[in-house]
Amino acid sequence: MLEKLRHQIYQCSRCGFCRVWEWEGVENVCPTYPFTPGWESQYARGRVRLARATMEGEVEITPAMLEHAYQCTLCRNCEEHCPVEVPLGEIFHAWRVDLAAAGHNLPVHRQIAENVAVHHSLYGPRGGRKGAEASEPRKVSVLYFPGCTTIRKARRVVKATADLLGKLGVDYAVLEEDACCGYPLYETGMVSQAKEAADWSLERIKRYDPDIILTTCPSCYRVLRFIYPDEMGIQHGVEVLHVSQYLPDLVAGKLGELDLRVTWHDPCVLGRHLGMYDEPRHLLRLVPGLELVEMYSSRENAQCCGAGGGVMAAFDAISGGVAEDRLQQAVACEAAVIATSCPACYVNFQRTIGKAGLDMQVKDLVEILNEAIP
Questions:
Q1: Cα dihedral across residues 364, 150, 304, 352: positive or negative
Q2: Where does the chain have alpha helices with state H?
Q3: For residue 62, what are the contacts with CB-CB under 8 A and spacing of at least 6?
Q4: Which of 226, 246, 266 finishes a domain?
Q5: Is residue 13 a part of any domain in this protein?
Q6: Does 118 fall in a domain?
Q7: What is the pTM of this model?
Q8: Domain-embedded: residue 32
């Protein structure tokens, strides 16, 4: 994979712009770098050099090197601010694919792959919780695909989405059983395992014969809509929509007043990866009485929550530090709620608010819309 990007790798001029902080609207280009010891290989410029050394066989793959490779959230903020437009996100993903193919993974990521293979969820077996068994499949207009983190760690989002679709009169079903889209494996370089997860999940989806697969998770949306057909050669033939694309026409004119000051956190996958900045903001502005305020870093400059790329699973302290940094921006703009539409952001913010003792709520986009419809 790196060999295919050889020319792009050599384009890196080592200018260091991917480390510069305190530009207008940007506190840190690399969100994780301030929470590491600060080695060159813990931000984009050094990682590109290590990826090149890996490609050329110049370096031994050590545990320390793997840690530095996987401390990247794949947020692409470095790519957004690279003056020579090096496709850094592609390079870092390709590097992980090559590392994984050679048997070099972090133990926690190997465990996640095993969990998905055996239990169809990155979190392993469900344990004692009941009431989430598969519903009887039937032909539906819309199948809501929550994904691993939402179904296990953000049940309020599942309930709010189901409530909202019911209020709007949508013919829908929720895929309640465990079904991993494969994205957690894809972003840690384990593409063949991701494809196996994709095949299994699509079999669950096809039983409902949906016209639309609806997601509240940007990663599920990206993999179902783009990565399956473009990179894995999987053509499922079903339209895939994120809630921020699906809901505007349905909720227009039906939303009641909410006296709420909200700031929107752009998830990295929804924003920098997919360019969807306006859709969620448009939905929030449809709510009468809701005041939408922007954080210091927003849209293409938005700071990562710290969860992506397998970082929350492998580097808890780094992930929490990045999340608290971002939450302080929400506190600074005096928002009562930080809203997002990504379960990883949702979970990382929620746990960090508790640890840091911040006076702030996290709400998913659908929770706010559901509250606004009687």
A1: positive
A2: 6-10, 44-55, 63-70, 77-80, 88-101, 107-119, 148-153, 155-167, 183-187, 191-206, 218-222, 228-231, 243-246, 248-251, 278-285, 311-314, 316-332, 343-356, 365-372
A3: none
A4: 246
A5: yes
A6: no
A7: 0.93
A8: yes
As a whole-number percent, the residues of the chain with pLDDT over 90 amount to 93
- We report the CATH number of the domain holding residue 355 as 3.40.50
Range of the domain at 267: 252-372
Give 131's pLDDT tier (boundaries 50, 70, 90).
Answer: very low
| CATH code for the domain of 54 | 1.10.1060.10
**Residues paired with 144 in a beta bridge:** 174, 214
How does pLDDT run across 150-190, given as a tens digit for each residue?
999 999 999 999 999 999 999 999 999 999 999 999 999 99
* Domain match, 86 and 143 both: no
Residue 194: CB atoms within 10 A of its CB come to 26
Task: Please state the domain count of the chain.
Answer: 3
Q: Are 191 and 241 in contact (CB under 8 A)?
A: no
Amino acid at the residue 365: L
Cα–Cα nearest to 34, from 321, 259, 303? 321
Select from 217, 246, 275 the last residue of a domain.
246
Confidence of residue 117 (pLDDT cuts 50, 70, 90): very high
